[in-house]
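Justification of resources, computational component.

The compute hours requested in this renewal are based largely on the per-chain cost of generating structure records like the one below. Each record pairs the submitted sequence with a full structure-token output. That output is archived, and it is also reused by downstream analysis tasks.
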Amino acid sequence: MIEKVSRYLIDKEFKLTLYTYKLHIVNYKEILSLTDQEVIIKTTKGKVLIYGENLTLIKLVEDEVLLSGKIKRIEVDFHD
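The structure output for this chain reads:
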């Protein structure tokens, strides 16, 4: 049980969660580009491209970010 809780708390897997007008991203490497219409996020496996309108960074904590705005499209470019 303790091992499961520990793995959950120390999880380093990239995660992306889409909400209405918000996008929560955890365990990314770097923000490569940030405009009000495009955000490019680098991960350990590639890139995530987010396109939309009025995109705004509303929370940033070490390896966690919350974007707000009208999200129109999300593309992933992962490599093996």
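The longest helix spans residues 2-9. Residues 13-78 form a domain with the Immunoglobulin-like fold (CATH 2.60.40.2000).
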